Amino acid sequence: MNVVEKILAQASGRTSVEPGEIVIANVDRLIMHDLSGYLTAGVFDKQVGGEVRYPDRVVMVFDHHFSPPTEQQAKVLESNREWARKRGIHLFDCGSGNIHHVLVRRGLVKPGMIVVGSDSHTPVHGTVGALAVALGNDSHAGTVLPYGKAWFKVPHTVRIELSGTPQPGTSPRDIALWLVAKIGEGALNYAAVEFAGPYVKQLEFWDRWLFPLLCVDLGAKCSFVEPDEATEAYVRTLPGQMPAVFPRSDGGEAAQVLRFDVGEVDPQVACPPTVGNVKSVTSVAGNPVGWTELGGHGGGRLEDIRTAAAVLRDRKVHPSVRFNIVPSSREVFTEAAREGLVLQLHEAGATWFPPSTGSNQAINMGAMAPGEAMISTHSRNFPGRNGSPEAAMYLASAASVAAAAVTGVITDPREVGA
Question: In the chain, what are the helix, strand and coil shares in percent, each to the nearest 5?
Fold first, then answer.
């Protein structure tokens, strides 16, 4: 069995499982953000009833309404707070950070766990070596609460093996975007996608994170990087106990193996209207942007902030651009402040926002008017995602975002020394 199959077997009390089987498994962590939590609580209270069986396994993070601009949105947060207190679940209030980064940074997700969440990007926790899947906002998540269990169809596995040496200026985010276009949106429906190979093996934890993040765009059910020495070294820095055993694959379990050489990839940009509409940055260079942002599930990492600081050293944000920086967690903001990056980027013209998910869905920031354009490290770019459906959202690496912040147009980051 591979990592996913071993986790499902153990959590369902079985010696083994095979793709296609249905199992009932114990859930180690149920996660919700402020939007989904409000809906899930309503379903649980009005339709399911009873008590939350394992409140210590349930986590809610406020990362969308991090500063509610309306009375209605403020009421949603207050309702969530009241429900969390009543049910005794973990609550991380406004300013804690992005839901997935908070879970990892606080040591609430560890290798071998089963994590289910009311957010479509929940599979990103496969980076830690967990089995993580997304559930509906207002249905399945509500039914997990009274039982601490969920049903799973064991997925088939597709292993993506990456090898080669990237070109200068090409980041893991560029390669992840390139893979979505290369494989095709929805092409790996209900698969467990394993990212492997020498290229992945040499990446540090937060760079590996960028690959399971995009598995939902491939249609996958879950994704993972097999835990190894790098995983263990990172997990040792987190609060809480170490897992007794790190799940490892027996080898050869993948139904399909896809191999790619990352040496042919240059910096990429996902263009409107979908994540899979990926092009070389050189083919869209010169398109004007008024907004640039580091943030979202894949951005706002310390690595991204360091990259932006390097690009903007001795430079200023272009007069026609608003450059928003949204740390992924309080821990990241603390470290950026200690390294002097906060002051440097502030003086260069960037605007800092509280640790959160940033302009995701434009609930608190980042709404665009018709004809405006943004380039960001976010994970979605559908029409209307950030305001007007006639605005354009481009997705790229931190280096490409910072380069555009300096020039006012989409720019090959290699031209500014990134």
Answer: 35, 20, 45
Shortest CA distance to 101 belongs to which of 388, 294, 320? 294
377 neighbors 397 (Cβ within 8 angstroms): yes
What CA–CA distance (Å, rounded) separates 151 from 154?
10
Phi then psi for residue 409, to 5 deg, are: -140, 160
- pLDDT tens digits, one per residue of 120-147: 999 999 999 999 999 876 667 888 999 9
DSSP states of 338-379:
HTTHHHHHHHTT-EE--SS-TTGGGSSS--B-TT-EEEES-S
d(CA 351, CA 358): 12
CA–CA dist 390, 392 (Å, integer)? 7
Euclidean distance between CA atoms 36 and 137, whole angstroms: 5
Q: Is 277 helix (H, G, I), strand (E, B) or coil?
A: coil
Kind and range of the H or E run holding 278: strand 278-280
* pLDDT tens readout for residues 33-76: 999 998 999 889 999 989 999 999 999 999 998 899 899 999 99
Q: What are 250-307's pLDDT values in tens digits?
A: 987 899 999 999 999 999 999 999 999 999 999 999 999 999 999 999 999 999 999 9
At residue 388, what is the residue type?
Answer: S
32 with 47: CB under 8 angstroms? no
